[in-house]
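INTERNAL TRANSFER SHEET
From: sequence group
To: structure group
Subject: Protein kinase domain-containing protein

Please process the attached sequence and return the structure record in the designated field. Keep the field labels unchanged so the import script can parse them.
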Amino acid sequence: MTELAGLSIAIFDQLLKLGEKTAQIISDARSFNDDTEQYYNKIVDENNRTKQLRHILFEPSPIYGGLTLFENFDDDVQQQIKVFLGRLVHMLKEALDLLESRYGNNEAAKKPSMTTSLSSLSLTSSRSSQEARSPSPRSWKHYSRQSISLLKWSLQDKKRTEEVLKDFSDLNGRIHENIKLWCLASSIGLNMQHLKRLQNDENAKQLGFDIDATLQITATEVGRMDFSFELSSAWLECLRRATPVEERFALVQEDGKTFLMEHRRYDGQPDVAGEIDSRTRIRINDLAGLLSQPKEKVFCIPRCVGWKYVQSQSDIAFLFETPQGCIPEPVSLYRLLDMKTVKLTLGQRFKLASALAKCITQLQMVKWVHESFRSENILFFPSASKKCIGSDSDEPCIDYGDPCVLGFEFTRPEIDFSAGFADLSLERDVYRHPERQGRPGRMFTKIHDVYALGVVLLEIGLWQRAITLEKNQFRTARDPFVIQAQLLKQAQRRLGDKMGEKYQQVVIACLTGEFGVQNDTREDLKLQQAFRTQVVDVLERASSCL
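Return from structure group:
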């Protein structure tokens, strides 16, 4: 283990030296291309991230028994980090070799301008300029070696350098996200001192680890919150006057601001004071506390400002902030799927699918489960400034890569036991794993949220509500696995033609739960990594190309 740690530190150091040298060459090559500053800044940023990760992983601490965080990871994780770093070194070395082949042995002052047009390049032979202008055909051997080298760089090497630098940045980003996953989702993520280190360490803050660490600390401490997130009675009147939005939501106006209200039916018996029972109160307050925490945008979850029991309507209302710069006229994915006038481009569908997959993986990382992930709980707010491209009307534009995920009636920390309430609604059962339909017979796990995501991705790909994918809307389905089989059949028969083979494979993997994982850890760490690789990364790469 010590040898592997030493080797990984050495690779980190090599990566830092390569990064500094690459940045220096780009800085000197001021005519590298029009985006020289962009590439220079990118390499500097990636180098800073490398330094911060090195500090997090290899700074000995009493928290880890005098060892480093790296040494507290399992052997498998340590090996993966070493392999990832090796790939980074290889990529950056290729970019450096390409740059040095053009600039490495020249002084900056002698470097010709790369912005010079091809017509003015020194593509002349060593003969006179008059002879160079001769219309007679000439052989490449008559041109100077410097001229040919410059043309080769312009037409080939420059493009490859740009590609390598982009791939390097993308891979470094994936390594960053994987290390965050190992820090939070592995067994070390149960160590409260470790989480507080990520919460307070300056390097961890620069990497964004502190936000997710805080979420996990809050989830771990759920049930022990002293703070009440219940709204004051002054909110009751505006809650009663809320403007309905579809079936589950409403808009609330208060003090010149617009809030989104999600209401949940309270079927319990109020106490003598007309309030909800104490057990439900604790559960609701804990949930509001979790949802009120600051979260990265990738969670797709708006911030909750509190909750209130509206006795006259027997509803428990959750209040959320609405996105800035948007028109407060939300529409659900469920409704959009039924609107014949709405047709998303391939790029829009992939961006939406990618955003939702990232949402699920973020919830998994901080040890949350959703339990009610379905299209009616996915909302979009039209932009207040952007207009639809290609539209003659002033219709507001919806950014389908920026959904709001709600439906938090049962959302909870993974460590909390699922109540397992019976729900016989086919409209909702179609999104549930067969093990969770009707009266659940098994505790809710990560794979059940993955299944629900698969159903929603199938809807997006076919642009059709899941309940309509069977002619009788599954009313004759006696076995929960019949619904799963029908959804799989639809994905296998129709999805490839509409969305491509990669998207089809993603959906089938989610619906079957087959990610090639064996001998997983107690925290389902291997499943989470496989889900990132086979679903999140695939959708993200595809969406970035469209």
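Handover comment: Strands lie at 243-245, 249-254, 257-265, 304-310, 315-321, 331-332, 368-369, 378-380, 404-405, 412-413. The radius of gyration is 28 Å.
Transfer complete.
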